[in-house]
Specification:
The chain is mostly helical. 55% of the residues lie in helices and 7% in strands.
Length: 187
């Protein structure tokens, strides 16, 4: 048999068995402990993944994140829906009808628009100005619909996975359109 390099101490050794990877008993024990540790880590990751797959709150956050990214990309050239200004600060995807009071509108594009952090956080959405600007943006009929009654919805994990996938796809389309527009502007 050819000389091999020990997996632990990296010294060369003459193996006595075809699959031998360690030069001594001490090195072999270290290899074994490392394999056991890796197996435990793999099992832990798998358990966590299974728990997250069955955790509705996790998927609600994931879907909300995808939706918020879509809204910020969709409205990136527009000013804050509430105060109407552009600035270099942080922008949120602000809800007109709150998620607590109207969870069925959480993922509706009319209900969610680009909003600066000061308006969203410190002025509770500056709802009076938000409404006036939203009326101009989506029209009075759509605003009346948004302010009307909606059947309550209890999102399932499968619903949330579909919502996430849909808005990630829409985000990809928006970004590809943006890069196409930049490319055609140069012509």
């Amino acid at each position: 048999m050819k000389l091999k390099k020990c997996k632990v101490c990296k010294k060369g050794f003459q193996p006595t068995q075809p699959l031998q990877t360690a030069c001594s008993l001490q090195c072999a024990l270290k290899v074994g402990k490392k394999k056991v540790q890796q197996q435990r880590q793999k099992e832990t990751r798998e358990r966590k993944r299974k728990l997250l797959d069955s955790d509705r709150s996790h998927w609600l956050k994931v879907a909300q994140t995808a939706f918020n990214q879509f809204v910020r990309e969709r409205d990136k050239m527009e000013p804050c829906i509430s105060c109407g200004r552009h600035h270099d600060g942080q922008y949120h995807a602000g809800h007109f009808r709150t998620v607590g009071a109207h969870p069925e509108l959480r993922f509706h594009p009319f209900n969610n628009n680009k909003q600066c952090a000061p308006c969203n956080n410190h002025k509770s959405g500056d709802i009076v100005n938000y409404r006036a600007n939203l009326k101009v943006k989506i029209g009075e009929d759509n605003l009346n619909w948004l302010e009307g009654y909606h059947e309550p919805v209890k999102w399932t994990i499968d619903d949330l996975k579909e919502i996430k996938a849909y808005y990630m796809e829409q985000l990809k389309i928006l970004k590809s359109m943006d890069s196409f527009d930049r490319w055609t502007d140069g012509l």
